[in-house]
Amino acid sequence: MGMKKIGMLTSGGDCQALNATMRGVVKGLYRLCDNVQIYGFIDGYKGLIYGNYRMLTSNDFSGILTKGGTILGSSRQPFKLMRKPDENGLDKVKAMKENYKKLGLDCLVVLGGNGSQKTANLLSQEGLNVIGLPKTIDNDLWGTDMTFGFQSAVDIATNTIDCIHTTAASHGRAFIVEIMGHKVGWITLYAGIAGGADVVLIPEIPYDIDKVVKALNERTKEGKRFSILAVAEGAVSKEVAALPKKERKKLEENPQFVSTAYRLADELTRKGIQDIRVAVPGHTQRGGSPCPYDRVLSSRLGAKAAQMIADKDYGKLVVLVNNEITAIPLEESAGKLKYVSPESDIIEQARTLGISFGD
Ligand code: F6P
Predict the structure, then answer these.
(1) Domain segments of the chain: what residues?
(2) pLDDT higher for 113 or 2?
(3) I want to staple 206 with a disulfide (CB 3.0 to 4.6 A). Which of 65, 238, 290, 331 is the partner?
């Protein structure tokens, strides 16, 4: 196989296995191709837009399997602004295409979540060779059973619940643990089950505050001194979920509380639940080293991407389906979110275990 010039970028919110994935791609490429040049764009699409990159060698990818964050840096470049010129009138899409062509790249590898993969699809439709890799702790990328970062975030959120459990038990308190996940409840659901939460509130199942109160009071009646509520940052009440989109947006843009957990604590206090405490692990859920599951997933995804580059199989997102690594057209996934289905198996089992979803 001849020389390959590969551009690579990590885009959007970071997560634990970005470096592990890039290492997988590069390790594979060095084995499959005679001559490889890697152009690492700095801070995601920003680097591609403004031609800011670093030449990387295999040494740069050594020892990073376990390293959190991203050696390339990342930034959020919203998809909806891609077609809007920057403050100096620069056409971003045109600039990205020009930089790609100027460097003579064979392919651009994009490690990113929903928004980033929409831009990847746009660039693919504009004629560039692009391969996407499914990154996000939220696990909300359509077309893959699992995104890398998710399991590591679940580990951290679960650890928080575990820690909260002991202090909640000592003091006989109700604790709300607010868990990331943007508009979906995957991390909350998994960490909630793993941590033995009593109430799990996710955006896909809007809650009725009276039902939450009932679940907590029932525990008290059963002689339980404490309760753990795993609450997704995007959890909403039935009333808010029923609002017209515009009004809901207005509420989201002018929040009365710092975050969902504090809003819920207020709602519960008004309903007579006392001595509530809130714990928000926040960005710790995106930090530290990737868990072994993510290291394996990322390495597999990376190896597949390398094979696809060697085969010139572009325009696709590498995914995990039924525990096999495969690839789907970028356009198939672009713009769709993968939600937790309220009717799914896992929700049913959680209910059987006695977990209340507040509905
Ligand atoms: O998409 C990952 C994520 O951590 C979400 O769970 C969260 O809503 C968001 O990013 C936070 O974004 P930022 O890092 O820009 O505050």
Answers:
(1) 3-148+290-333, 152-287
(2) 113
(3) 238
Domain 152-287 sits in CATH at 3.40.50.460
Nearest to 145 by CA among 304, 272, 301: 301
Q: Is 138 a catalytic residue?
A: yes
Which H or E run includes 189?
helix 186-194
342 Cα to the center of ligand 1, angstroms: 23
Distance CA(198)–CA(228), nearest Å, equals: 5
User: How many other CB atoms are found less than 10 A from the CB of residue 24?
Assistant: 27
Q: What is the third-level CATH fold of 3-148+290-333?
A: Rossmann fold (3.40.50)
- The angle formed by the CA atoms of residues 275, 204 and 341, to the nearest 5 degrees, is 130
The reply to whether 152-287 shares the fold of 3-148+290-333 is yes
Q: What is the pLDDT of residues 289-308, one digit of tens each?
A: 999 999 999 999 999 999 99
* Contact residues of ligand 1, CB 6 A cut-off: 13, 76, 113, 136-138, 180-182, 233, 286
Rounded CA Rg of the chain: 22
Quickly state the pLDDT bin for 3 (edges 50, 70, 90): confident
> Which residues have a Cβ under 8 Å from the Cβ of 30 and sit 6 or more positions away?
36, 58
Listed in sequence order, the residues at least 6 apart from 292 whose beta carbon sits closer than 8 Å to its beta carbon are none
